[in-house]
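Look over this record before class:
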Amino acid sequence: MASYVDELSEDRQRVSKALNTLIAEQEELVRDLSDALNEYRDVLDRLIIRTMIYRNIYGATQGQTVMAEKDAQDASRPVTETAAQLERETEVLRVYREAVKQVDSGLPLGMAIGRFPMG
């Protein structure tokens, strides 16, 4: 008796449907990450401008300026982390799309997914 994975791999329609669903889910994740990244960047932009203004008003060593710099540094972390996650998830989406193309063109699932090693 064939295993579930073997049975699934032999049914191109099921494989294609599963891959297309994965693509839709991944596209939503990438959209959500893009939206979040834009929001984080907007916050960081405001905090950097505030820091620049505080430096001009109070000088680089005054408490208000130092706190503004800390706020900007704290706001840069989500930008960096979300940008890295977005890059990873976009690569996964690319691989899903390529895999469905390969499967739809007749390549067996094992060969289609084995062609795209992830770093």
Notes: Residues 12 and 106 are 8 Å apart (CA to CA).
